[in-house]
Amino acid sequence: MTSTLTRAAATKRILTPSITLGGHGDLIRSISYFPDGQRMISGSWDKTTRQWDLKVAKQIEEAQYVCKEVRAVAVSRDGRWIVTGGGDWDSAELKACKVGTRTVRTFEGHSRKITCIDISMDNTLLASGSDDETTRIWNLNTGKLVAGPFESVDLVGAVRFPTDSKKLAVKSLVRMCLEIWDVQSQKLDVRLGDFRVKSVEHTDAPIFWTNNDKNIVAAFSFMDDHCATIYEFDASTLETVGAPFKRHTTLFEEPTKVVTGLALSSDHTLLVSASYNTIRLWAFESRQLLASFNVHKPNALVLSPDSRQLAYTTKTKDSYKICVCDIPPDILAQASTSVHLQGPTADPQSTAISPVIALPPPPQIPSSTPGSRLPQLCSDPRELLPSSSHTHTVFSAHNVQPDDLPPEEALQDLSKYITKDGEYPVARGGFGEIWKCTLRIDSSLVNVAVKALQVYADDQLGPAKVKKTKRIKRELRICAKVNHANILRIYGYTYGFGPFPAIVSPWVENGNLTVYLEHEGAALTLVRRFQLLRDIIAGLQYLHTNSVIHGDFNGPNVLIHGDGTACIADFGLSLMYSKVISASQASWTSTLKGNVRWMAPELLVEQEDGSQVRPSEQSDMYSFGGVMLQVLTNKVPYYHLTNDARIIFCIAKSETPSRTRYPELPEQYWQFIEQCWSLDPRDRPLTEKADTTIRNEFSSLSRSH
């Protein structure tokens, strides 16, 4: 049953922006979040695109002049590509830029300006709609045309792939038509609308697939409502499904002529629409109007990846702005509770895996069957796609009581759902092997990394194996409580990779920092390098704030997601390994291999009782100095030495890397690195000071560039 709020109730709400971004000189036609929810890109008729840091509410770098008129921008879901489209009546410009590099793909074929774009869920295909009345599909990685042109009956206003990219929905800009095309056969499945009649007002509001890609949501006109009504259509027939959303009205309850913007939350519970001086929020399933806000001429609008923020563009006289607002919690709660308990998407036993940075969108987990408990990796998408409005979980690894830990179910055994992608591990480190695997949930696949812990013969497992296994799970449950954008998450554990549980984490596409710099280092700007350092020190500060020591901080333990975000991995693993699994000399020697060049000298010193000095916040900061040197120069500490024994000898003699080997490094950066390398651990900067220093330098460089 459809219900709406009264006019009085709806107009009482105030939508106050938490962030306002200004700088464009003309209408802002398109905005898009990065997957981390902390950055945004915008495109304007002023011929530029701009990137924004939502944490500090500032432009990251100077405006990029892209084309004659920027009409569409998008960021791929793995964060690797930024796509821009535009042009004019006589030309089209469509480009994709690989994040963090200077790689640019140009897509040629359209004859008039690009009006809309969409990137497939698997980040391989790009759809573009144009004023030349065609839609084309491209390979995003090669720039080659793979399907089309699909000839429409009008200027194209919106395009959208479903999850499997087998179809393409296309909506016209002026004449009211909606089309579904089959991508493989390149034939039209069905078309709705009278293309001989033009709408009084046109709309390029996006369209969305819903109900497991069976339906389409669009602002549409049946000739008498001027595109001010939102309908849900059956994608196979384009017949309407359920009740429409009540048409937009002005402050005086007069009907508006057009819906200018649409946004749908990732879980399909909240729909946001924009029209003349109005933004409305709806419970999608029930069609209930949850709130109506008076907003001056909203145009493009988008929801953040976690669907807790709303961003929209607006024009006031000669001022063009982007406004970012936190959606009131009561509205989010109402949207969730308004879902009809029908169908698989509303089954309380069915839960979606949260989207992972640099991985595909969330697959659906089917209902449980007797005797088979299916995994729930994460119930809150904010945990993996944080935004500036999200407060990180805070915990202390010291004195953790059993009641403070997540329940056993929160760190789940994923063995039934893990498949190796090859016969051999993709990497070996000090603590074990890394396997690339696939996590299979129903018909959906997610790439994951599985870390198998090494065990040596002289560890004498025997009866202690059961006890050690329990201890490992307890340590992993502590690690699983960590929730920060710059810390690699732990999904759960799996068996079949050795005598102990192996750790399951997201697969990070760009690999570790050392590998990333080998491939991309030559093209990185100084701003980009400090962006990496900002991420790294933020993750380390979070650990130290919560009394967690990394213990093995180095370049290989910093991973780079597909969108360029850096995160820290393997925190606390060295302590867990030495305390729980192995105290053998073989394991100690192995853990040093390859990573010793970042190690603090005090860790090589034996105490009076013969035991090793334990890692500390200060030893982590010594290692950060080496990581900072690596990020700024593309060279690891002691890069000229390949023998670990020689490196250990230098560290034991307190011989830090020589300044003369890094002549290109500015002096002020070298001085800070030397502070991190102070022989007296008490003289090393705390992570809080380092974080402030790095952020200030990043902001200064961003403004100057």
UniProtKB/TrEMBL annotation:
Gene3D superfamilies: Transferase(Phosphotransferase) domain 1 (1.10.510.10), YVTN repeat-like/Quinoprotein amine dehydrogenase (2.130.10.10). Keywords: ATP-binding, Kinase, Nucleotide-binding, Repeat, Transferase, WD repeat. It comes from the Eukaryota. InterPro entries: Kinase-like_dom_sf, Prot_kinase_dom, Quinoprotein_ADH-like_sf, Ser-Thr/Tyr_kinase_cat_dom, Ser/Thr_Kinases-Pseudokinases, WD40/YVTN_repeat-like_dom_sf, WD40_repeat_CS, WD40_rpt. PROSITE patterns: PROTEIN_KINASE_DOM (PS50011), WD_REPEATS_1 (PS00678), WD_REPEATS_2 (PS50082), WD_REPEATS_REGION (PS50294). Residues 420-705 form the Protein kinase domain. One of its GO terms (molecular function) is protein serine/threonine kinase activity. Residues 365-390 are annotated as: Disordered. Pfam families: PK_Tyr_Ser-Thr, WD40. WD repeats lie at residues 21-62, 107-148. This is Kinase-like domain-containing protein.
